[in-house]
Each structure stands twice: as structure tokens, then as C-alpha cells.
Specification:
Elements: E1 9-13, E2 19-20, E3 38-42, E4 76-79, H1 82-87, E5 91-96, E6 99-100, E7 105-106, H2 113-123, E8 131-135, H3 139-151, E9 155-160, E10 168-169, E11 177-182, H4 188-198, E12 204-206, H5 213-219, H6 221-230, E13 236-240, H7 245-260, E14 269-275, H8 280-286, H9 297-306, H10 325-332, E15 335-339, H11 341-355, H12 361-375, E16 384-389, H13 394-398, E17 403-404, E18 409-410, H14 417-425
Parallel strand pairs: 5-16, 8-9, 8-12, 9-11, 11-18, 13-14, 13-16, 14-15
Antiparallel strand pairs: 1-2, 1-3, 4-5, 6-7, 10-17
Helix pairs in contact: 2-3, 2-5, 5-7, 11-12
Length: 428
């Protein structure tokens, strides 16, 4: 195996087109006057999987990484038989990021959030002295905790305490991983507030969420897996979303693949789904307004408490800014759908009957969206469809044994930054 060299790339301001150098952990264009995502522009313009690298790093040529971490797994794409036949689709492909050794999927945490964690953490320099801070509604926390534990990367993870049941692991975590929680009744936005205040201290730094090109391009490997298996860009793409970052990532890799030219020149229609009653992105899109729909903090917390797919509740999604979800839906001629809790339970059961393994609630929401799109005629029988199943195999994975990670600290986001920093410092 040839020695791994950091991927060569520059950054581009999506809004202005300005191309500039990455200074190591650049999350935005310092010269930009308007909010905009930045996008990685890779030296290698062709999609080139690396047969000499294992797991997710097979796609390292289109990931902004400096090194390779251990225990990663790439998404697995296969042509559906049961679900495709049930829905009347001839070319339905499922891209699965979860646990199902039978098809080669071995995500330890059962979630595609591992694709984010292995890319983001591999963007870090080996000699980084600061402590990474990640805010999460659940699955992202589990993924970053596992990856950082395995690779001894110091991290503070901020979650809502009500979502701590998502923090299960097969073994005890390395003490370099610290978990802090906003108290009962809080939501993801409160976890974001905790992390933002902690990062006012220069010894801590924010992972950056959707603004981090490594997070998006790690998630974008789902489309690369699909295109490698199918041999072309799909006609339609389905995913459940909380922030919409995964859909943005798929759109960005679609554009790179068009530039490559060997896999087609079409823009796949991006269809996203949310769990009712938390439908901020859906409501905003249906109003066809670049601005987010109004959602009070109190209503957002109530709605997030009601939904099964709690990871789909984000009151601060990257929707409006240049390169955000509004642009992805507009450019791809996509659309949004919603699913009730009953719809999610129905498709968890149906999917297991049809495909042989269980789903997490969020991807079941995406399956419902696909069924609705078929019913409404938004996808045709012979369309090539990619269904991004972002997590599953929980029952099989947890059968191997598991233990929960309790928060190291429960703390109110209403406290001052100095108070939060002092309490977190005491954990180390």
C-alpha cells in the first residue's frame, strides 16, 4: 500500500465563487459579506476510488483528509428486490450505512454519522492541541464518541439529556471522550448553545456542523457508493433530514460527478423527508421561501419531544445561506415530504419483511417519502432511484452486548460561557 498523502484541495465560496486556501480548519470564507457555505475543490477531478485504502477512505480522493483512522466502514449499495417490487420500481438501489454483516455493512454505531466522524477527525492534524467540540441530537454523538475513542482524539460532545438513550456502545469509551448534556426538556438547539459557549475559550474549537467541508464530503460518500455500484448518477435521491446536510452533500458530489463526465450529466432530483410535527424544512420549502419558516423555541422543543426520529429535529438548519438546502432543492428540482410516527413504525416493519433487516426511525421516514413520491407520480417505474438508508441493524448489533454512556455533566445552556467552561474544565 502506497503511503497516504493528504488530499489536495482548495476551498470555494459557493456564493461568490472565490477560491482560496484552507488554513487548516476553515469553516467560512473570511472575505465573504453574505452567509455562504464553502465547498472543497479537489485537485483530482475524476471519481477515483482507492483500492489500496480500507473502509471509508476508499473515497479519500474526494474527502479533505490528512490521515487515515482505524475501524472505518464504507456505505454499501445494492439493488433492492423486495422493496422495489413492492413499490413497483425496476431500478431501486439502497445505500445502507448501518450494521448488516451479511451485505458487508459493519458500522459499529449503526448510523451513517460515522461517515462524518471519520472524515472530520481525519481532517484534524495529528499534533492538534485543542479539544474538538461536537453538538448532536444523538446519532452524531454516538459516531463521534466511538471514532474519537478508538483513535484517542480528545472531544467534548454536547447533547440534549433526553436523547442520552442514543449513547450506547459495545464497550467502555476512552476517557478522552467527555459527554455534557443540556437538562431534561432541552432540544438540539440547546446543545448547540452549550457548545458555542464552550468554544469561546480558545482551548476548545467547534467541529462546525454543516459548515465543515469534511462533514459534508464524508456524508457524500453515500452517493459515491451508489454511483460506483450503479455505474451512473441516479435520477432521484431520497433521504430523511434534520439539518439537510446529507442532502447538500449528495448534491455537491452530484456536481463533481457531472464535471467528471463519465457517469452522466444529469442532476438527480433530491427528495427529503421530515417527521411530523417537526417539519421546519418542509414548511419552509413548501412556502418556497429562502427564509426559514417561523418556529418558536417552545414550539420547537414540544415538536421534537413528539417525534420518533428525534435526530430529525434541528431548529438551526443550513437552509437559507448560499449552497444550503434551499439551493440544493431548487437546483435539483427536488421536493419535501413528511411522515407521521405511525408511518415510521409501519415502514420499519415493512422494510424488515421486504429487505430482511431493521431500520432506525429516520430512514424509515425516507422510505415513506419514497412511497409517497411513487404514489404521486414524482418518480417513474424505470427511474434509477437511490434510497439513502442512513441507519439500521440496531437489533443485530446490540445483541452482541452494549452499555450506555451517561453524561459526565448535565448543565444549563443558560449559564454564562465562563461558568460552562469552568465546569467542563473540571472533567479533564
Amino acid at each position: 500500500m502506497r503511503k497516504f498523502q493528504p488530499t489536495q484541495y482548495k476551498l470555494q465560496n459557493v456564493g461568490t465563487g472565490r477560491i482560496f486556501e484552507d488554513r487548516g480548519w476553515t469553516l467560512a470564507d473570511p472575505e465573504s459579506k453574505e452567509p455562504s457555505l464553502v465547498r472543497a475543490v479537489y485537485a483530482n477531478k475524476q471519481f477515483t476510488p482507492r483500492d489500496d485504502l480500507k473502509g471509508l477512505y476508499r473515497y479519500a480522493e474526494w474527502m479533505p483528509v490528512r490521515r487515515v483512522l482505524k475501524n472505518s466502514c464504507a456505505p454499501v449499495t445494492f439493488k433492492s428486490k423486495g422493496l422495489g417490487k413492492h413499490l413497483g420500481l425496476d431500478n431501486l438501489y439502497i445505500t445502507f450505512s448501518g450494521y448488516n454483516p451479511r451485505i458487508g455493512a459493519k458500522f459499529q454505531t449503526c448510523s451513517f454519522k460515522e461517515t462524518e466522524a471519520y472524515s472530520v477527525c481525519a481532517r484534524l492534524a495529528k499534533d492538534e492541541k485543542r479539544t474538538l467540540v461536537v453538538q448532536s441530537a444523538g446519532n452524531t454523538a454516538r459516531a463521534f464518541a466511538q471514532v474519537c475513542s478508538d483513535n484517542e482524539i480528545p472531544i467534548v460532545i454536547c447533547i440534549p439529556e433526553d436523547n442520552k438513550h442514543d449513547l450506547w456502545f459495545h464497550g467502555k469509551l476512552n476517557p478522552c471522550v467527555k459527554l455534557i448534556a443540556a437538562p431534561h426538556g432541552s432540544d438540539y438547539y440547546d446543545a448547540i448553545s452549550l457548545g458555542d459557549k464552550l468554544c469561546e475559550d480558545p482551548r476548545y474549537f467547534a467541529e462546525g456542523g454543516a459548515k465543515n467541508v469534511a462533514r459534508r464530503d464524508g456524508m457524500g460518500t453515500t452517493l459515491l457508493s451508489a454511483v460506483e455500484a450503479i455505474g451512473r448518477i441516479p435520477d432521484a435521491y431520497f433521504q430523511a433530514v434534520g439539518s439537510g446536510t446529507g442532502a447538500i452533500a449528495a448534491w455537491e458530489n452530484n456536481l463533481r460527478l457531472i464535471e467528471d463526465g463519465r457517469f452522466g450529466t444529469n442532476k438527480m432530483k433530491i427528495f427529503v423527508a421530515q417527521n411530523r410535527p417537526f417539519t421546519l424544512l418542509h414548511d419552509s420549502w413548501k412556502a418556497h421561501n429562502r427564509s426559514l419558516a417561523e418556529l418558536s423555541a417552545a414550539q420547537g422543543r414540544r415538536d421534537s419531544e413528539c417525534i420518533l426520529a428525534k435526530v430529525l429535529s434541528n431548529r438551526k438548519p443550513p437552509y437559507s445561506l448560499a449552497g444550503g438546502l434551499f439551493d440544493a432543492l431548487e437546483d435539483s428540482k427536488g421536493d419535501t415530504f413528511t411522515a407521521s410516527n405511525d408511518d415510521i413504525i409501519y415502514w420499519i416493519l415493512q422494510f424488515r419483511n421486504l429487505e430482511g433487516f431493521d431500520l432506525l426511525p429516520a430512514p424509515a421516514c425516507a422510505v415513506h417519502a419514497l412511497s409517497e413520491a411513487v404514489r404521486e407520480g414524482k418518480v417513474a417505474k424505470d427511474d434509477v432511484v437511490m434510497l439513502n438508508i442512513t441507519g439500521g441493524g440496531l437489533l443485530a448489533s446490540m445483541a452482541k452486548g452494549f452499555q450506555f454512556k451517561e453524561p459526565d455533566l448535565v448543565i444549563s445552556p443558560e449559564l454564562s460561557a465562563d461558568e460552562i467552561i469552568a465546569k467542563v474544565d473540571s472533567l479533564f
